[in-house]
Design a protein that fits this description.
By secondary structure, the protein is of the alpha/beta class. The chain has a single domain, classed as NAD(P)-binding Rossmann-like Domain (Rossmann fold, 3-Layer(aba) Sandwich). 37% of the residues lie in helices and 14% in strands. The chain has 9 helices and 7 strands. It has a 7-stranded parallel sheet, sandwiched between helices. Helix 2 links the parallel strand 1 and strand 2. The structure holds NADP nicotinamide-adenine-dinucleotide phosphate. The site of NADP nicotinamide-adenine-dinucleotide phosphate has 28 residues, from helix 2.
Length: 256
């Protein structure tokens, strides 16, 4: 779909994903789940993965897995990624929404640094290359989740900030490298989104108020609001966009 010409948008609804296969890494929870559900609503067959054994191991408040095909996959495990047998034989859209953060200054220690870089950057490249040939077959679309801290900073989380800057630059570099093979690589840089990753802030009224104060729109985003951007990027409406990362932050970076 993403490799379609501008003329195709005249023939079919550009946001109709029926017949398309979508795989969302990190789709078990939060932003990835919000994105997965948007594609499901638009008719796609949607597969997601997370670290837990079964879909029933997730709390409904973390993500709604109904209608999604769930698989367990730890994307930091190179062996598991190499031998992973997906339940789809065609891939039109790959969304990489895996992510982690270590609080309490743990990212200033080697273990915390290594853990965050492994999930937020190394696994992004590993997943992109693992599924590249399937995306090329479909002239598909790859969407990488980075963060506004790829542009701004996160003084308590050096690994998170550096990994996200790396993910954003990887988006641009893969965009250039794989365009000739028909794969469009683009990204989303969210600001503050209500998920289990940010519950440490959002569940504390004082911290939540302080965080929201810096956002011109005056609120955090919901995961589904990232989903609309992902639909656009994967659709023929974005057929000439390559290597871009769209900031979706309610104006947070404008106000810094
Ligand atoms: N929330 C925000 O404000 C915000 C802002 C900017 C960017 N982001 C980025 O958006 C993405 C999604 O984050 P989120 O807020 O939605 O957090 P989340 O709800 O914690 O979701 C993170 C997802 O990544 C998966 N994951 C983590 N480690 C993994 C591994 N080793 N292998 C496979 N999957 C793994 C998690 O699976 P399990 O649940 O099984 O661990 C979960 O599905 C991340 O890249 C994050 O950095 C979030």
């Amino acid at each position: 779909m993403s490799g379609a010409s501008a003329d195709d948008t005249m023939i079919r609804d550009p946001l109709d994903f029926s017949g398309k296969r979508v795989f969302v890494v990190g789709g078990s929870s939060g932003i990835g789940n919000g994105i997965a559900r948007r594609f499901l609503d638009q008719g796609a067959e949607v597969h997601v993965c997370g670290t837990r054994a079964a879909a029933s191991d997730y709390r409904p408040e973390d993500g709604d897995l109904s209608g999604l095909c769930y698989a367990q996959l730890d994307v930091t495990d190179r062996g598991a990624l190499a031998t992973f047998r997906p339940a789809f034989d065609q891939l039109d859209v790959l969304v990489l929404s895996q992510g982690t953060v270590v609080y309490n200054r743990g990212e200033f220690e080697p273990e915390g640094w290594d853990r965050v870089m492994a999930v937020n950057l190394d696994s992004v490249m590993a997943c992109a290359t693992r599924f590249k040939s399937m995306l090329a077959e479909q002239r598909g679309s790859l969407i990488i989740l980075s963060s506004v801290v790829a542009i701004a900073t996160a003084r308590g989380n050096p690994a998170y900030a550096a990994s996200k800057a790396g993910a954003k630059h990887l988006t641009a570099t893969l965009g250039e490298a794989w365009a000739a093979e028909g794969i469009r690589v683009n990204g989303i840089a969210p600001g503050l989104v209500h998920t289990k990753m940010t519950s440490v802030t959002m569940d504390n009224p004082r911290r939540a108020a302080a965080a929201v104060q810096g956002i011109p729109l005056g609120r955090a985003a919901e995961p589904a609001e990232m989903g609309g951007v992902a639909l656009f990027l994967a659709s023929p409406l974005a057929s000439y966009i390559i290597g871009e990362t769209i900031v979706v932050d309610g104006g947070y970076t404008l106000a810094r």
